[in-house]
Amino acid sequence: MKRVTLHIAGKVQQVGFRSKAVAIANVLGIKGNVQNLVDGTVKIVAEGEEADLERFIKCINIQNTLIYITNIVKDYSTPTGDYESFYKLVGEGETDERLDTAADLLKELIHVTKNGFGRLENKQDIMIEKQDVMIEKQDVMIEKQDVMIEKQTETMDKIDRNRIEIVSEIRSSRDDFKSHVDVRISMIEQDLAQIKAKVMI
User: Does 64 qualify as catalytic in the annotation?
Assistant: First the structure.
């Protein structure tokens, strides 16, 4: 058994990092806690088997759209056995602030769900319609100007590639947006569950 104290810098506060750390620790059987510090970093105290601790450190070194770790400072020491589980420490007033944030995010999510996806699909349809019109005009030009067939074929190839890239980018953007919304919903659900648990206590 070992104990490690981690000081983690980066985009780690108000992005669901502590909840992610708790979930990972529970899977690996790590004991300890995680807390936000006033300087914008996060501190983790973790105890467990050395191999599990190393897996834990590797798993929490997250770099994605929401969470982006820039540095982890590790300080190993002798375990005390003080912890029975792994939990998140919450600062004074943080629950009220998180509840307000959750409400704002929920409103934003409802707005995006009602309006955002529809607009995105409409824009995609308009772009595809415009590209179809362009292709039809080029087909007419090809019929009228046999001499320009080779050049126009090259132009059509470029347009087809561009259309595929645009459609691919639009689909990718829609998938990224949906993934982002799913993550934010998950964060809201986690925060609401914690708030409910505290209110019931």
Answer: no
